[in-house]
Write a structure and sequence with these properties.
The complex is a heterodimer of chains A (171) and B (298). With 171 residues, chain A is mainly alpha-helical. Chain A is built from six helices and no strands. Chain A has a single domain, classed as Arp2/3 complex 21 kDa subunit ARPC3 (Orthogonal Bundle), CATH 1.10.1760. The radius of gyration of chain A is 16 Å and the shape is globular. Helix content of chain B is 38%, strand content 25%. The chains are: A mainly alpha (171), B alpha+beta (298). Chains A and B meet through α1, α3 and α4 of A and α1 and α2 of B.
Chain lengths: 171, 298
């Protein structure tokens, strides 16, 4: 549901509300939130669903954005989850807000750089400098700014249920 | 506690499955384009999300309109400021053009004067610009940017463009001080100035002095009541010929001074007529002048 709402907002509302040629990536904020609060599996599932929906709505290469959202989600999840073989007790602490924001920035960078690289490799992208200056950096900045508001809201929607062993507790 | 092996495997399996699904979709997407199952998924997604998208657009439209209105207002304000700047620059350019035009007109009239006036044909002359003008009740002088290095000497008459007169130029005054590169000119409006004058086309002679009660106007004094003088007659300098006291006038003959504007003869006990002469030259806007080199410099 959250994926659907955010996808619609990202593609319908944001282009009108945010001036400029790029829009913030709301779905990556969701994927990062899920990775922080629910772990790797949930993040991968969310990233997959978000990517498929986004690519379907944009009539793009189905599966490309899914891969990138999954990569971003898994990177964040493995950063915060304890290692498989380590015993941790009590519960793993939630990263500080600034670190969460940093995760959003890095995750957005992963998605945007991945998309740009894919388009360049497929031969339908813009020059790298143009992509960097006009797409990647503005998207990261806008997403980071929006994450200041959206991250706390999404954390309330998806509260922290991760166990010390790194597996999310079923809701 | 240690992570269970089955959970570990499950996590890997789920992630692997999702990766495989993504890659499959990507491959199918490249193979089929917008046809087949991929196309159906995309069309289905569009159909499902379209109503929500249009609802979202309707909800956000007022905010977008408000934003556009506000940004439009800001743009209009900055545009207004820009246009005001451009208008100010255009006005400044217009003032400069008018000034240049005025100078060209004055130069044109002076050129006509030098080509058509007998007095200009008699004496060499030098053009000059007025660099300073000090008009007050006690002293009416101007400073011009030519001096002794240009052949100017004390006593030389100075003429300036004469407005709309057919005579093209009129008397301004007389050089009183000379430096190598500048000269001071005492205007005929100066209270201490008197110019020997005559009415053109007749024998009437008099002395043109500033009218103390009417700044900018001259009185033609010492004209006997018996003489015939009418308005609109031209008054010129009377010349160098010796007068009855054996004194010579300082200015050569024939330089236009002004037009007779009024002649009064009401007081029968008065020996002389009351004649007002309006100078040809507008002393309020002196820019270009000609100095007639009448006085021979050693």
């Amino acid at each position: 549901m959250a994926v659907f709402v955010l996808a619609v907002l990202q593609l319908s509302a944001m282009p009108q509300l945010i001036p400029g040629s790029v829009t913030p990536d709301l779905l990556v904020i969701l994927v990062v939130t899920i990775a922080l609060t629910r772990g790797a599996e949930a993040a991968a599932l969310t990233g997959f669903a978000a990517g498929v929906l986004l690519d379907a709505m944009l009539v793009g290469r189905l599966g490309l954005t899914s891969l990138l959202y999954m990569a971003a989600g898994l990177w964040v999840a493995y950063r915060v989850e304890p290692s498989d073989s380590v015993v941790v007790s009590p519960l793993s602490p939630m990263p500080r807000p600034a670190v969460q924001l940093l995760y959003v920035v890095v995750a957005t960078a992963i998605v945007q750089v991945g998309l740009a690289a894919a388009h360049v490799l497929l031969g339908d992208g813009y020059p790298v400098t143009y992509e960097l200056v006009n797409v990647i950096i503005p998207t990261i900045v806008e997403t980071a700014v929006l994450a200041l508001v959206l991250l706390p809201l999404l954390r309330r929607l998806f509260p922290y249920r991760m166990r010390a062993d790194g597996y999310p507790i079923a809701a | 506690m240690l992570i269970g092996k089955n959970r570990h495997l499950r996590r890997r399996a789920v992630i692997g499955l999702l990766l495989a699904a993504s890659l499959t979709l990507l491959t199918l997407s490249f193979r089929q384009g917008s046809e087949g199952a991929i196309g159906a998924i995309q069309r289905g997604a569009l159909a499902v999300t379209a109503p929500f998208s249009s609802a979202t657009t309707r909800v956000t439209k007022p905010f977008v309109d408000a934003w556009n209105w506000t940004s439009g207002l800001i743009d209009a304000r900055s545009e207004n400021a820009k246009l005001k700047d451009e208008l100010a620059r255009a006005n400044a350019a217009n003032v400069q053009l008018n000034q240049v035009n005025s100078l060209l007109t004055q130069d044109d009239r002076l050129l006509h004067f030098t080509q058509n006036s007998q007095i200009a044909a008699q004496y060499p002359f030098v053009g000059a610009s007025v660099t300073r003008q000090v008009p007050n009740a006690y002293s009416q002088t101007i400073t011009v940017n030519v001096g002794s290095s240009g052949g100017v000497a004390v006593g030389d008459p100075v003429v300036a463009p004469a407005g709309s007169s057919d005579l093209f130029a009129g008397l301004v005054g007389r050089v009183t001080t000379v430096t190598p590169n500048a000269s001071s000119v005492e205007l005929i409006l100066d209270p201490d100035t008197a110019v020997s004058a005559r009415v053109q086309g007749g024998t009437v002679r008099g002395v043109a002095v500033p009218n103390p009660g009417n700044p900018g106007v001259l009185d033609l004094q010492m004209v006997p009541q018996a003489e015939q003088v009418k308005p609109n007659q031209v008054v010129v300098t009377a010349g160098l010929q010796p007068n009855s006291q054996g004194l010579q006038a300082l200015l050569p003959a024939g330089i236009p001074i002004g037009l007779v504007t009024s002649v009064s003869q009401s007081d029968l006990n008065d020996v002389f007529k009351g004649i007002e002469v309006t100078p040809f030259v507008d002393f309020g806007s002196l820019d270009r002048v000609l100095v007639l080199k009448v006085v021979k410099t050693p």
